[in-house]
Amino acid sequence: MLNTKRKNISLAILALVSLVYFATISHLEIHPFFSFEVVVIPLQLLTLVYITYWRWSRKEFTNFPP
């Protein structure tokens, strides 16, 4: 039960942060190409971190004997 509550709180915080981030980006007075890059680069970095963590944790658990 506590684990589900933590996930819901984390999801709400993540949604709030992303809402503030995209609202801030949409109000910036910059060239459209750069505003697109400002939106996409953090998503690419998060994806890179996620994939790296996923592969690292997968390798760590395959070293243990059955």
What features would you describe in this structure?
This protein has two domains: 30 residues; 36 residues. The chain is 85% helix and 0% strand. The longest helix has 31 residues. It is flat and about 50 Å long. The mean pLDDT is 79.
SSE order: HH
Low-confidence stretches: none
Distance between termini? 30 Å
Q: Radius of gyration in whole Å, from Cα?
A: 17 Å
Helix-and-strand structural type: mainly alpha
- Sheet-strand content, in percent, reads under 5%
| Individual helix count | 2
Largest sheet: none
Count of discrete domains: 2
Bulk shape: flat
* Number of distinct beta strands: 0
Helix content: over 70%
On the 0-100 scale, what is the average pLDDT?
A: 79
How would you summarize the topology of this molecule?
Layout: H1 2-26, H2 32-62
Summarize the model shown.
The chain has 66 residues and is mainly alpha-helical. The chain has 2 domains: 1-30; 31-66.
Notable traits:
2 domains, 85% helix, mainly alpha, 66 residues
